[in-house]
Amino acid sequence: MPxxxxxxxxxxxxxxxIQGRPTxxxxxxxxxxxxxxxxxxxxxxxxxxxxxAIEMHKKYYHEGLRVLGLATAFExxxxxxxxxxxxxxxxxxxxxxxxxxxxxxxxxxxxxxLPYNIPFAVGMDTLLKFGSLTxxxxxxxxxxxxSDFKAYSEKDRQSTYERVKQYLxxxxxxxxxxxxxxxxxxxxxxxxxxNGILQHSTFGxxxxxxxxxxxxxxx
Length: 219
Description:
about 20% strand, about 35% helix, alpha/beta
């Protein structure tokens, strides 16, 4: 079962830290932790998620917030790689759809480089070969991600099963942290309190994030 709000947050499954001091959830007790989960080939991550995480880092680091970046991959495995993550962090250069859309928006500097640096530690999610697709894997995915599946009609259950089956057929790898936290996509933000309890997990742009951070810092 994926991590649950109000329960102990599991450690991140980091294959390697590309930037910053290696750390993890259990090493940050006493701090509020924001984990910004992104993909290198994800324009929205660089338009919304990462800039918001950088702003939170700058505003609240000295009040006890620790922001950690986690690059993951649940699609586009040829682009969401460790090598492209290293390129991003060492040169600021982006690739793929990120480069295409940010160029259209006029948000890149010469050399396809971001106009900002990522100032916090960043690691790569652990990717495991997904292996053969079985009925158990399909049902495990449904049970973890579709809370009211059993209440569906037989027709809707079968339709959901087939959609999930087609989705999983495209997955070459299982991203361990992404799956452990039951995330739905990127950018995603995970917020953990000073006692290591998972308090907030959201997908996409989240205007309530800063308020949640300030509340936990005050506890």
